[in-house]
Specification:
Helix content: 25-40%
Structural class: alpha+beta
Order of helices and strands: EEEEEEEEHH
Distance between the termini: 35 Å
Number of strands: 8
Radius of gyration: 16 Å
Shape: elongated
């Protein structure tokens, strides 16, 4: 069995992550799936990865992860490492999304897919940023 996985996270604009990692954690319906070298192939969305004692957190919006025995490749509409996220901006985005959702709850013309995606994106960014802040605090 391989001792590492190659992790790639790419968006149409850029390569967000390309690293050799020990583990990748992907959210599933019942919690996170831990992906170790040699894992059976599967598809899912967003991630946390571990490299030695360090963890990295990536907010992935609208993407899929392909898991192969020696590689995890994430193709995403958008992705940001936790340390790149403007927390105040993400909080403002979430507040705006929640405000729009409440205001349009009775509007039959509301694009609910876009609305829910906007809310989920802001939440994912805040979650990744909070993990990054926790990880940074542990290192100091």
């Amino acid at each position: 069995m391989a001792e590492a996985l190659t992790l790639e996270v790419v968006t149409p604009e850029r390569e967000v992550v390309r690293e050799s990692v020990a583990e990748v954690q992907l959210p599933g319906f019942s919690g996170y799936l831990g992906i170790l070298p040699g894992h059976t192939p599967l598809l899912t969305q967003s991630l946390i990865y571990k490299k030695g004692a360090e963890s990295g957190f990536v907010a992935v919006i609208g993407g899929f992860a392909e898991v192969l025995p020696d590689r995890v490749t994430v193709l995403a509409e958008a992705a940001e490492r936790s340390e790149e996220i403007d927390v105040a901006g993400a909080r403002a985005d979430l507040a705006e999304a929640e405000k729009r959702r409440a205001a349009s709850s009775s509007d039959p013309n509301t694009d609910w897919d876009a609305m829910l995606k906007f809310v989920a994106s802001a939440r994912a960014r805040l979650e990744a940023a909070s993990h990054g802040a926790t990880s940074a605090n542990k290192e100091t």
